[in-house]
Write a structure and sequence with these properties.
Blueprint lengths: L3 H15 L4 E6 L5 E2 L3 H8 L4 E7 L2 E6 L7 E5 L4 E6 L11 E7 L4 E6 L5 E5 L1 H9 L12 H9 L5 H5 L10 H11 L12 H20 L39 E4 L7 E4 L5
Parallel strand pairs: 2-9
Antiparallel strand pairs: 1-7, 3-4, 4-5, 5-9, 6-8, 7-8, 10-11
Length: 278
């Protein structure tokens, strides 16, 4: 966490709020989140640059910067507890101690990268480095090229559990633990099943489950169980729509059976209905 809906929400907020703004300064307080640049190098590469666009790739928030020589990108991977927060003045007391760095903007606001556990990263990439990185990860599940047959082919080629395949960022990006659980439930598929046993019809149902839950969560501005916040510090609202994740021991919304919670699949919390997920 944040997964695809949460990073998409942050990216859309930032694109609306800071597109066209110029970065006038950088303050780094926790340099261990930086990758590929020292604090001084970060300053040199971004100060005076205009934000052309904010967008998402996989679970990354990407800020495209205008010239002069190369179109660098600030690439933020929030991982478990990271967030990009816009502020005019100091951050709230609950957030301020966890600000690792912030970019000052020409309108007087600041964009903070807040990370409680400091497991996320901030990187500046040139076009070639970003293209290389992007080529090494998988297809976007909301892209039109992510078809029923494409997903079926991915699943047929793996002996791993369905849930593990969905969460493998090398083949499909953006799906983490929450939405893998939800998509499998929607499709009626046991997440522990060997992926190669999923039929083409089941793969079609699973793709519909993936696209549906991601799209609905984006509309609800994501899921805030613990640390996720949008760019304004707000919480997502999709938690109330979750069918299985976080509901271990409760009744299945489809068949009424008791939901099972286990860590046996990949060491992470998996919740499923043994009554209607096969």
């Amino acid at each position: 966490m944040p997964e695809l809906p949460e990073t998409e929400t942050i990216a859309r907020d930032l694109d609306r709020e800071i597109r066209g703004r110029t970065i006038t300064g950088v303050v780094v307080t926790k340099a261990d989140v930086l990758r590929g640049a020292t604090p001084a190098e970060l300053v040199d590469r971004v100060v005076g640059r205009q934000v052309e666009r904010a967008w998402r790739r996989a679970k990354l928030v990407v800020l495209d910067l205008a010239g002069p020589a190369t179109n660098d990108r600030i690439v933020v991977q929030p991982r478990f507890t990271g967030a990009l927060l816009l502020s005019r003045g100091p951050l709230p007391d609950a957030e301020a101690p966890y600000s690792t760095l912030h970019f000052t903007l020409d309108d007087g606001r600041a964009l903070h990268y807040r990370d409680i556990r400091r497991l996320g990263t901030v990187t500046v990439m040139g076009p070639d480095r970003f293209a290389e990185y992007s080529a090494g990860i998988g297809i976007e599940p909301l892209d039109p090229t992510f078809t029923d047959s494409h997903l079926s082919g991915i699943l047929r080629g793996s002996k791993q559990a369905v849930k593990k395949v969905l969460m493998d960022q090398r083949v499909v990006v953006g799906i983490g633990n929450i939405y893998a659980n939800e998509a499998c439930w929607r499709a009626g598929i046991d997440p522990s099943r060997s992926a190669r046993t999923v039929t083409p019809d089941e793969a079609a149902a699973l793709r519909a489950g993936i696209v549906g839950v991601l799209t609905e969560s984006i509309a609800a501005r994501g899921t805030s169980f613990r640390d996720y916040r949008d760019a304004s510090g707000g919480r997502g609202d999709f938690e109330r729509s979750l069918a299985v994740y976080g509901r271990g021991g409760e009744s299945c919304l489809r068949c009424g059976a008791r939901l099972v919670e286990t860590h046996a699949i990949d060491g992470r919390t998996t919740v499923l209905c043994a009554g209607c997920q096969r």
